[in-house]
């Protein structure tokens, strides 16, 4: 059994997979509130790595790159309940609840330490997944508004994230790419996050770095892997996903082609 997603409403789903692990470099178009029911999740953002387990509750901001690696654990699949906090729903909420919003630093995901308010709210969704028909919109709206209200109660700064509906503007290509090169994303997504069309992104990239995006990304990822293996004494199998490669054998081939020796030789 592979990856399964069960929707009871467009904004409410139950995700499950039973494979050894599932890795994705993600860019969510809307905020996601996630409750880990079973399994374990590893999140890599920039040079920070975080581990979460069953019971933890996370909020992933929209338009932020993050690497997520999910693992089954204790013989149980990785399973999570997910609530989408869409732009339209948040706009409707904040039209009724006016707030003053200030600009924030680029947001990072938030962890809520199994807060009982949120756990109770998300746990109450589980019986609905036994329904044979979609969850009525009025009930879904009540549950999502409850979650938003709880977030505002336990995090006084959350309005500055949830009520900010700005789209990415044109920013420094050098600064952004140096911080986010390890994310394996389509080029048009990199362009969007830097406030550029795909054509403008490629043109500006060539002018800035004197090479193509794909060549530059591959070299940067290999250099990061080299650092982790040599300086931090980590195994190639531990780092290839984190630095943006999808396949261990392809990583080994690219590494040897670039450096002249295999990563396993250096690790040994």
From TrEMBL:
It comes from the Bacteria. SMART domains: HTH_ARAC. Keywords: DNA-binding, Transcription, Transcription regulation. One of its GO terms (molecular function) is DNA-binding transcription factor activity. Gene3D superfamilies: Homeodomain-like. Pfam families: ExsA_N, HTH_18. Residues 171-268 form the HTH araC/xylS-type domain. The keyword rRNA processing does not apply. This is AraC family transcriptional regulator.
